[in-house]
């Protein structure tokens, strides 16, 4: 497979890069200023038969049109929102992603964010480091155990979060397109009702046209001044302007965010808020999971180019 041209859209995990270099003829788009036009000045477009993208730079219509021999997109992500799936389907391009291997990590981080916001872990860490403990006790935080948790999207990650929250004695309810027969949790067909009924609302669904800004002013107000919003999905699930004003005006109790609408930009106003915990889109970024995701990308590519079924096919 050493002669098969594979294009990486941006730097990802070093191990993935090494593996791609070992098994394929790897091209790196960022060596051409991340510009396809630049790339095509020095390389033949028809050498590329596979593209590996991620949550930063995926595979859009321009890229698809530039590589006439493109056969497969193997995304180093579970999320598919940066891939033009319709175009891929139209052109008969296969698509694979990295589900399952990252579920635990993302669910762990969701719980970490809840604890971070409610127990004020980041603020109290700073309190100790800057020597304030010597002057006075830190003060009280908010209990997590036993709270009511609402989950938007009860897929693999949503279910893993639910299981973890159950272990904290939380009552679980969820909103999704349809009721899940396997789940023993209360189902809401209306997200406003879910937000009204829970204390912590967690966004864990895929980003699609239907779920863009699913967390709008109405949902935020339904969650209310004591409610906590956790987002480990995508920034665009939340109307960020509304989120910021709700936090500034005290209409929302707090937020734990791993994702933002214009990453890596984070609204300035959030940086000064003590009831907010911010992470730089690292839900699946552990050594173990990143290696497993990379292995899955390689296995999908090898399967495709050996005419075997993809391990985690999307299309
Ligand atoms: O956000 C992370 C992913 O989609 O894998």
UniProtKB/TrEMBL annotation:
| Keyword Nucleotide-binding recorded | no
KW Hydrolase (keyword) present? no
Q: Which PROSITE patterns match?
A: D_2_HYDROXYACID_DH_1
Q: Which InterPro entries match?
A: D-isomer_2-hydroxyacid_DH, D-isomer_2_OHA_DH_cat_dom, D-isomer_DH_CS1, D-isomer_DH_NAD-bd, NAD(P)-bd_dom_sf
Cite the EC number. Answer: 1.1.1.79
- Superkingdom of this entry's organism? Eukaryota
**Protein name (Swiss-Prot/TrEMBL):** glyoxylate reductase (NADP(+))
Organism per entry: Salix brachista
């Amino acid at each position: 497979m050493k002669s098969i041209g594979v294009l990486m859209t941006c730097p990802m995990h070093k191990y993935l890069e090494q593996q791609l270099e070992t098994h394929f003829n790897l091209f790196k788009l960022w060596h051409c200023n991340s510009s396809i036009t630049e790339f095509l000045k020095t390389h033949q477009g028809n050498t590329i038969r596979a593209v590996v993208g991620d949550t930063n730079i995926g595979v859009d219509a321009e890229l698809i049109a530039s590589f006439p021999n493109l056969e497969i997109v193997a995304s180093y992500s579970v999320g598919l929102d940066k891939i033009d799936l319709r175009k891929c389907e139209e052109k008969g391009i296969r698509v694979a992603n990295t589900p399952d291997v990252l579920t635990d990590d993302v669910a762990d981080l969701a719980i970490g964010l809840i604890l971070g916001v409610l127990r004020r872990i980041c603020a109290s860490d700073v309190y100790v480091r800057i020597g304030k403990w010597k002057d006075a006790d830190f003060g009280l935080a908010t209990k997590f155990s036993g709270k009511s948790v609402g989950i938007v999207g009860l897929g693999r990650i949503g279910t893993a979060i639910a299981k973890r929250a159950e272990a904290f004695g939380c009552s679980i309810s969820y909103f999704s397109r349809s009721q899940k027969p396997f789940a023993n949790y209360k189902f809401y067909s209306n997200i406003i009702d879910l937000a009204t009924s829970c204390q912590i609302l967690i966004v864990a669904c895929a980003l699609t046209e239907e779920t863009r800004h699913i967390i709008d002013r109405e949902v935020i107000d339904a969650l209310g001044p004591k409610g906590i919003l956790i987002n480990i999905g995508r920034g665009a699930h939340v109307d960020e302007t509304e989120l910021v004003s709700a936090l500034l005006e005290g209409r929302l109790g707090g937020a734990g965010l791993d994702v933002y609408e214009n990453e890596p930009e984070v609204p300035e106003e959030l940086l000064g808020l003590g009831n907010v915990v911010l992470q730089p889109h690292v839900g699946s970024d552990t050594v173990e999971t990143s290696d497993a995701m990379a292995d899955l990308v390689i296995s999908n590519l090898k399967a495709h180019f050996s005419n075997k079924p993809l391990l985690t096919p999307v299309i």
